[in-house]
Structure formats: C-alpha cells, structure tokens
Design a protein that fits this description.
Layout lengths: L13 H27 L18 H49 L15 H50 L5 H30 L5 E4 H18 L3 E6 L3 E4 L1 H17 L7 E9 L2 E8 L35 H11 L3 E6 L5 E8 L3
Helix pairs in contact: 1-2, 2-3, 3-4, 4-7, 5-6, 6-7
Length: about 375
Amino acid sequence: MIGKTPPRRPGLSVRLRLTLSYAGFLAVAGALLLAVVWWFLLRYVPDNSQGLLGVSPNRYLLVHTFAPAAAWAMAFLLVFGLVGGWFLAGRMLAPLTRITAAARLAGSGALSHRIRMEGRGDEFRELSDTFDAMLERLESHVAEQRRFAANASHELRTPLAVSRALLDVARRDPTGDRDELVERLQAVNGRAIDLTESLLLLGRSDRGNFARESVDLSLVAEEAAETLLPLAERRGITLDVTGGAARTEGSAELLLRMVTNLVQNAVVHNLPAGGTVTVDTAVVGDASVVRVENTGHPLPPDLVPTLTEPFRRGAERVRTDDEHAGVGLGLALVHSIVHAHDGTLALVPRPDGGLLVTVRLPGLP
C-alpha cells in the first residue's frame, strides 16, 4: 500500500541505549582507574613475607584486601550508571517526546498545535522552532488549498447551473429561439472550459512540471500585445510595447500566458476610453524585467495585495463591460508562474490611477 510504513523489527529504545552507554562508559572509566591504581601502586609493593622495610603489608595482603573493595566499587558504579543513566536519558529526551507528540497530532490532521518549547537555545529548541514554523506554513497552505477548492467548486458549479437553467427553459418552451439558446450555451460552456484550463494550468505551474528553454521576453510581450490589440482597439485604448531583449529560462507557453494575462488585465481594468497600456522589457542587473503599466481609476491600497489571490476579481476596479470579466484567476496564474520560474512579482498602484506590475525573472547572458 502506497504511503504505508513497512514493518520493522523491534529494537531497543533510545533511552535504554543511552542508559547502557552511560553505564558502560562509567564502568570502563572505573576499571581504568583501578588499573591505574594497580599499575602505579601495587606493582611496587614487594611480594615477600617481610613486606616493605619489614613493617608494611606485602603485595599478597594488599591484593586480597583491595580486590573485594574494587569489586564492590565496580558493582556500585555499574548500578549507579544504570540508574543515573536512565534518569539522565529521560531528562535529555523529554523535549524529543514533546516533538514526537506534536508530530503525531499533525499526522492526525491537528495542524493548529504548537510545541513552543521554553528554555535557552539548543539543538532540541532549534528543532522545536523549526517544527513549529513548518506546522504554521503547512496549516496556512492547507487552509489556502481548502479555500481554493471551495472557490473552484463554486465557480465550476455556476456555469453548470446556468446551463441547466437554460435547458429547463428550452424544454418548457419548445417554441423559443434555438439560435439564441445555442449561443448562450456556447458562451457558458466556453467560460467553463476557460476556468478548467486555468485551474489545470495553475496546478501545473505550482508543481513546476515543465520543460525549460531560453525565452526572450520581448518577443513574448510582442506576441501577447498582437493577440490583444483588437480588444484594446475596441475599447479605445492605446497599447504600446517598448524595451529590448530580455532573456530568461523557462516555459515559453507559461511565460506567454503570464504576459498575456497581465496585458489583458491592464486593458480590461482601464479607463472607459482614451486609456493606455505600456509593456516594457529590459535587463536590470542579472534579472530580466517585464513591466506592464496602465491607466485607470485610483485603487484602494488595501485592495492591491489581494489581487493575486485565486478568484479575486477586484470588484472595486472599474471595467466597461463583463465580456472579459474572467474567472478571477488571471493574476493568481501570473503569481504562480512567476514563483515557478524563481522570480518576483510586484504590484504598485499609480498615483494618478491604474497599476504598475513588475515581474523580475532570472536573466540569461
């Protein structure tokens, strides 16, 4: 079964192994001490009936007197090492027990628990803090994924519900306009397909599962602008592409989608007429930079940081119609693609209205 830990043979606990290590070390140290006493003391005592100078005990008497005491001392050291080692090992491994308990709770799905170990900094404290930070990131990631799944389910359910409503109306009124019904169903189906493709692309970019090649961002910007030029002309918006070559390594398809989303977002969220969109590519230091700047109405400062969240459409932003309203994944896809390419994304509201989006990607010579 995938993900199941294979059975392992039972073994000694870490606490018992540490206890035996402490006791063994203490016993060896005691034996060495007795050996030193024997080597530097008893070996110089004469082994005759008179002893040293005729008054001191001989080696035979000293050995028979010293040996029982040494045996008792060794037995005491062994017992003391086992008892003391068991106690010390328990004290030393107590923080590890707390970390293990927290790991079990996290494995059962309780990600809100934190260890928060007190005391001075040591290896266990560092491990505890690292584990707490990992739990915090994991909890945030899981909450974001649940929120994303709920939003995606809602967004996918909407076109299906609309399609069912249209079909119900057509069934109750067989004499209705079939062409209008087909057109509306086609529009709803296209929106559902766009949403599904965006979700698949978002998951692909999050995994980083794509082939990398050398890509010139200036050519990507020109292709995106050429695709969206008819939309800009219909809205009376001037679309300009400036700058020079800016090469990076990544997926040409994903980078084209990134720039296309930025330009489309800049065109849709613009002035009703007479607006401008400027796409500029350049090399700044060791980075290849794409800047997309548009005119528009002033943006609330607290709105801008939320625009890269999935299904955030920016309701406060002004658009002239809902033809290109999108599904709220445009900037979320941009953020995911930029992150997958080890780049950075910055959104800055312009003082006169509109938005300046700057994408920095690792450059190539």
